[in-house]
From TrEMBL, chain A:
<dbReference type="InterPro" id="IPR006311">
    <property type="entry name" value="TAT_signal"/>
</dbReference>
<keyword id="KW-0732">Signal</keyword>
<dbReference type="InterPro" id="IPR012368">
    <property type="entry name" value="OxRdtase_Mopterin-bd_su_IorB"/>
</dbReference>
<dbReference type="Pfam" id="PF02738">
    <property type="entry name" value="MoCoBD_1"/>
</dbReference>
<feature type="signal peptide">
    <location>
        <begin position="1"/>
        <end position="30"/>
    </location>
</feature>
<feature type="domain" description="Aldehyde oxidase/xanthine dehydrogenase a/b hammerhead">
    <location>
        <begin position="201"/>
        <end position="281"/>
    </location>
</feature>
<dbReference type="InterPro" id="IPR008274">
    <property type="entry name" value="AldOxase/xan_DH_MoCoBD1"/>
</dbReference>
<dbReference type="InterPro" id="IPR037165">
    <property type="entry name" value="AldOxase/xan_DH_Mopterin-bd_sf"/>
</dbReference>
<dbReference type="Pfam" id="PF20256">
    <property type="entry name" value="MoCoBD_2"/>
</dbReference>
From TrEMBL, chain B:
<dbReference type="GO" id="GO:0046872">
    <property type="term" value="F:metal ion binding"/>
</dbReference>
<feature type="domain" description="2Fe-2S ferredoxin-type">
    <location>
        <begin position="1"/>
        <end position="77"/>
    </location>
</feature>
<dbReference type="GO" id="GO:0051537">
    <property type="term" value="F:2 iron, 2 sulfur cluster binding"/>
</dbReference>
<dbReference type="InterPro" id="IPR036010">
    <property type="entry name" value="2Fe-2S_ferredoxin-like_sf"/>
</dbReference>
<dbReference type="InterPro" id="IPR006058">
    <property type="entry name" value="2Fe2S_fd_BS"/>
</dbReference>
<dbReference type="Pfam" id="PF00111">
    <property type="entry name" value="Fer2"/>
</dbReference>
<keyword id="KW-0479">Metal-binding</keyword>
<keyword id="KW-0408">Iron</keyword>
<keyword id="KW-0411">Iron-sulfur</keyword>
Amino acid sequence: MSAQLSRRNFLKAAGASALLVGFTPRGLLAAGYEDSTLNPFVRIDSDGVVTVILKHFEMGQGTSTGLTTLIAEELDADWASVRIDFAPSDTAKYKNLLFGAQGTGGSTAIANSFMQYRKAGAAARDLLVRAAAEQWGVGVDRIRIDKGVITDGQRTAGFADVIHSAARLEPNPEPQLKTPDQFKLIGKLKLPRKDSIAKTDGSAQFAMDVKLPGMVYAVILRSPRFGGRLTGFNADKAAEIAGFIDAKALPNGAGVAVYGKNTWAALKARDAITAEWDFSDAEMRSTGALIEAHRELTAAPQYQARALTTDAVQARLSAAPRTLDAEFVFPFLAHSPMEPLVCVIEPTASGVRVHDGCQFPTVAHGALSSVLKLKPEQVEIKTLYAGGSFGRRTTPTADYHVEAAMAFALLGGKTPVKMLWSREDDIHGGYYRPMALHKASIALDADGAILGWDHRVAAKSIVKGSAFESALVHEGLDHTTVEGLADTLYQVPNMALGVSDFLSPVPVLWWRSVGNTHTAYVMESLMDMLAHERGEDPIALRLSLLDRSNKEQARMAGVIEAARDMSGWQPGQKRGFAAHYSFNTFVAVVADITVEGNKVHVDKLHMAVDCGVAINPDVIRAQMEGGAGYALGAIMRNEITLDQGLVVQDNFPQYLPLRMPDMPEIAVTIVPSAEPPTGVGEPGVPPTGPALANAIFAVTGKRITELPMTTAGFSFV
Amino acid sequence: MEYQLKINGRMRSLNAEPGTPLLWVIRDELALTGTKFGCGVASCGACTIHLNGNPTRSCITPVESAVGGEITTIEGLDDPISAAVQSAWREKDVVQCGYCQSGQIMSAVGLLRQNPRPSDEQIDSFMSGNVCRCATYVRIKDAIKLASDTLEA
Ligand code: FES
Ligand code: FES
C-alpha cells in the first residue's frame, strides 16, 4: 500500500486532515487528529502547512513571532511557510502559566511559554521522526529534518507525507529539546516578523475592521465626570440624524448606548443627545486639589513597604548633618493605543461570538457571560490583532466588554453590535496611569554616605477592589504602587518606604511598565542628585551600590557597564544616565541631547538590555525603540488634567503624541545571557524618562521633578 | 444621497449623507478596512488615502468632495514606488501593532512621489502628521530611505 493511499484512507476514516500536538488541561503532551478534543499548540495540515496556535495576543510586542520561533525551532519547520492563528478563549488549555488565567501582560508571554512551546514543537518533531523511520524501515537516529524537509540521507519527505502515521503514535512525554548550540532560529539576528506582510498591505484584521451582515454601530455617551450617574436623557435631536437607530440608557447608570446604521451616524447622533447626571458621588476636584490631596497623604503613610518603618527612620534623619530632600509629582496618563477600543458581539446558534483584540480572555469571558446571562461555554471569543494596548485592553472590570455586552443585550440580543470608542472617548475615558506623588528625604553624613532614607508615596491603588487584589495586595499594600522602589537592587542602607492610597472615582490602570513608570523616574533622579551632591560620577555611584555576589545585582551592573561602554561614557560629560530592573529584565540608558534656551532635542539613546536568552534579537531591539519612544512622548508632554472634574484634554491636538521629528536615534546592545528569557515589552520604558531628565540636568542645571517636562518650561523640538 | 466614487480604479456607487467623511464611507460602506480611524480630526494620519495622487486625511474629507476624483487606498497600491515602499517596510520589519502603518505607507509613497531623494529633515517634516503610538519611527525612516535607494538603483 502506498503511503499516499494509506494516508488518504486513514484521513477519510478519521474524518480529519491535520496532525495536532498540544497539551491536555493537566499539562501532559497529547497528539491526535483534528476531530479529537485536543486543543493544539501546533497543527500540521494534510498539505504540510504548519500553523502555530498563539495563546498570547499580538498588540505589536512581537509575540506572534516569538512563540512561532519556539515551535519552528524545535520542529525544524521552514520559517517562511509557518502560519499563525490565535487561540480561542479557553483558560484550561491556554492559560498563562504564570497567572493561572488566559491573558497577556507583565511582559510574561515569552517567559511562561518558553519551555511549553518548545516542548510542543519537539513533541511534534519526535512524532514525525518516528513516523518517517517506521515508514522507511530505518532507525530514528538516521532521520534529520531541516526547514521542513525530512530525510534519512537517501530519501526525502515533507511533513504531509508522514502525518498520518505520526498521528497514530503516542507522543513522547519528555521529548528531547535542542541544546542552545543547535539553535537555528532562536537568537537569529534577523527573522522576518510573522505579522509584517498583513500589516503592510491593509489585510491585517483588527476588531475595528469587523463588519457583519446586519451589524449596527454603537457608541456610548458617558458621564463627563468620573463617578457620575445618568438620571435622564433627551434624544429628540438625534432622531433628525439620518442613520440614527435608537438610544437606550445602560442598565448600570453609566451612560446611554447610541446606535446608528454606520459609525458616522452613531457619532453624530451621540453629539445631538443631551443627558442629565447625578454627580453626588463624582470626582469634582481640579488637578491642583488632587496634587494637594496626594501631598497631604504623604504626611502619615498608611502602609509600610520595607522592613524599616517611616517612624523608625526619623531618628537617623534628625541626627544627620544634612539631608537631600525632593518631591516628585506625576500626572494621570492615558494609554491611547492607536486603535481606539472596540468590541463586536454577534448572536450564534448557541450563544454569542465576540470579536476583540482580546488581551485577557479569562477576565473578558467571565464578564461577558455574566452580563449576557450565558453559560461560559456559550461565549466564544475570537481574538484579532490589537492596535496597541500598553495595558489599556486589560481592565479587571473588563470595562469595554461590559459596555459592548450591555449595548448588545439592550438591542434584544439578536443583532450584531459593534461598540466602538472615539479618540475623545479614549482621552476622556479614565483607566489612567495613576497620579503619584513621592517625597524623599535622604540623610547623608559629611562625606555624602547615606545614613537613612525616608521615602513616601501616595497614589491610587490599581488593583484594590478588583479580581487581582488577592494576588497583588499584601497587608493592605498594593505592590504595583511601589514596584521598582520597594525592591530596588541598589544596596541603600536604612530605607523606609511609606505608602498611602489616594481615593477617587477616577479609574486607574496599569500603563506600560505600571508602577515603574514613576518609581524608576524617582529612584534614578535621586541617584543622579546623590552623585551630584557627592561630586561623583553617576555611573560609578550606581556600581558602588551593587553587590556583584548577588546574581540580579551583578546583571544590573552588567547592563550599566554595557551602556557606559557602548556610549563611550566619560565622567563629567553632559549626558544623562539611568538604569532599571523591571519584569525580570535589566535596562540601562545613556541619553544625548541638544539644548538651546529652553528647547530640548533628544539626539540619541544608547540602550543596553539583559533579558536572558535573546529569542528574537530584532524584536528585542524593536521593543527597546518603541518602549523608549512611548516613555519619551509621555514624559515630555503628556498629562491628563481635570478642571472641576472635567477632563481638559480631548484628542491628539491636546494630548500630544510623540511624532517622527521627536524620535532620537537609538542604539541597542543585547547583553549575552544563558538565563531563561524574560519580557521586553515594558522594561525599555522605565529608565528612558529619567535618563532624559538627568541629561537635562547635566546640560542646564535644572532638575525636573514634576511631569510632564513642559510643566518646567521646557519645550521639545 | 447616492454617490459614484472612483476608488482603486473602479467606479463604486454608494449611499451616504452629504458631509459624511470619506473615511467612514470607505470603511463602513465599501468595506475597505485597511484605511484606519485614529482620531477623526486630521491629527494622526491613520486614515491617509490618496486623492488624485496626493496623501489626504480621509477623516475630514467630505464624501462629496471626492466625487470625480481618483481615490487610492492601501488595498489599491499598485505601482513601482508603492511596491518599493511596502517591501522596504517588510525588510526593516517596521510594524509593531500595525494599526498606523497603512497611513504611514500612504504618506511615504506620497513623499517619494514628490521627492525621490528626501533628506532626513524632509522625511521628518513630511511624515510628522502620521502618529505611531508604538513609536516605530526609527524604522519608518530607515524604510523610506531604503525604498528611495531601491528606486534609485
Ligand atoms: S483619523 Fe484622520 S488623521 Fe486621525
Ligand atoms: S505600529 Fe502601532 S501605532 Fe504604529
